[in-house]
Design goal:
Helix content: 25-40%
Strand order of the largest sheet: 4-3-2-1-5-6
Number of strands: 17
Radius of gyration: 23 Å
Largest sheet: 6 strands, mixed
């Protein structure tokens, strides 16, 4: 069954607008340019998608131009790939030397913080380390505010993955292997038109649900096991990421009590999400609920062993991070997960993960939260 909905897209006009904002940042900071590596930032600003390797391929953005820096033998390939217009400049032996010539004498160059350290050292040798500036903050301040088109893409991906979760719920029966479920989820994501099937998939049963990122090896679903399914996909590069934890039948009072605490904590995060609120205050809200129920405090177990959420977009984990100590104020366009997991070591864990996007009127769910311990969908 294929997904029968039109797919939103990021247009070249939107990418040109992103480049305009980046150029404003470059000029405000008195920089000669920003060097983008083969990272999600290259995709974000230019539309060019390449995977990292030891040979540098990226783009130099200056106040007046975009120049693609490409290994000579890759030029014909890059010419066929979608990207904003710009001169393709090739190198044969040293990309750092070419970049140094382009920047010229004296100019400061901001670097994509996704560049590998070995390439930084090559640039430092070619230009001088004092002329290299960390551009990560400059880039991420732009990335973390999502446009309407980006939110539509994330919404599409989330809705698709939630539908796959529903299909999994119907599939699950005692005796099924976790590997069978993982394969099923990947197949359904592919059928629905995801970029390349599942980007990740965690399927845990029983005590393995207490391990936030799952257990090694295959598992078999028992009659009274807790079930945790955490998966996502990409649509035009943008991620989905949804977790459901449930049992096939009710009646386990310890699990049900813990499930409702988890749901209360998740709702507390949502209720605390207000424009201008510090990201840390959302994490605080989740931990306050847990402490009220004698869980934790802090990162102690039984309790919440990690942050309450993370940003999401072209990267599965990006800013803003919903974590203690992060005083970043929430702003319109920010998107992040809400997943204050509760872990009971060697017994079970409960993670309910839905994502939020911020509007001028406050938070909105991408997907509605689960209904109950044996009812994972609203």
């Amino acid at each position: 069954m294929s997904w029968q909905h039109p797919v939103p897209r990021i247009t070249d006009e939107e990418r040109q607008s992103r480049l305009s904002r980046l150029r404003q940042v470059i000029e405000v900071h008195g920089l000669a340019g920003m060097l983008l590596g083969p990272t999600e930032s290259l995709r974000y600003f230019t539309g060019l998608v390449r995977h990292p390797s030891e040979r540098f391929l990226g783009a130099l953005v200056t106040p007046t131009a975009v120049s693609y820096i490409v290994p000579g033998f890759e030029r014909s390939r890059v010419e066929t790939l979608p990207h904003l217009p710009g001169e393709i400049l090739v190198w044969e032996e040293s990309s750092a030397a070419l970049i140094a010539r382009l920047v010229g004498q004296g100019g400061r160059l901001a670097l994509d913080d996704g560049l590998p350290l070995f390439f930084y050292h090559a640039l430092a040798a070619a230009m001088g380390a004092e002329r290299l500036v960390d551009g990560g903050r400059l880039i991420r301040d732009l990335h973390r505010i999502k446009s309407a088109a980006e939110i539509a893409l994330i919404q599409y991906a989330m809705t698709l993955t939630l539908d796959v979760h529903r299909q999994v719920h119907v599939l699950l029966k005692p005796g099924i292997k976790s590997s069978e479920v993982v394969d099923f989820i990947d197949h359904r994501h592919r059928q629905a038109g995801a970029d390349s099937g599942s980007t990740f998939c965690i399927v845990s049963f029983g005590a393995a649900t207490a391990l936030p990122h799952g257990a090694d090896g295959d598992q078999v679903l028992g009659d009274d096991d807790v079930i945790l399914v955490d998966t996502g996909c990409r649509i035009d590069g943008y991620h989905s990421d949804i977790t459901r934890t449930y049992m096939l039948e009710g009646g386990n009072s310890a699990f049900e009590r813990a499930w409702w605490i988890e749901r209360e904590a998740q709702q507390a995060v949502f209720d605390a999400a207000r424009i201008g609120a510090a990201c840390s205050s959302l994490d605080d809200a989740a931990r306050k609920v847990l402490a009220k129920h004698s869980l934790g405090p802090d990162y102690r177990l039984p309790g919440l062993p990690h942050r309450a959420g993370h940003g999401l977009g072209l990267e599965i984990h990006e800013e803003p991070y919903i974590v203690r100590g992060n005083d970043t104020p929430l702003a319109v366009g920010m998107c992040f997960s809400n997943e204050p997991m509760i872990v009971f070591p060697e017994k079970f864990g409960i993670r309910l993960e839905d994502h939020i996007y911020m509007t001028a009127e406050g938070p909105r769910w991408f997907t509605n939260p689960a209904t109950g311990p044996a009812e994972p969908f609203s």
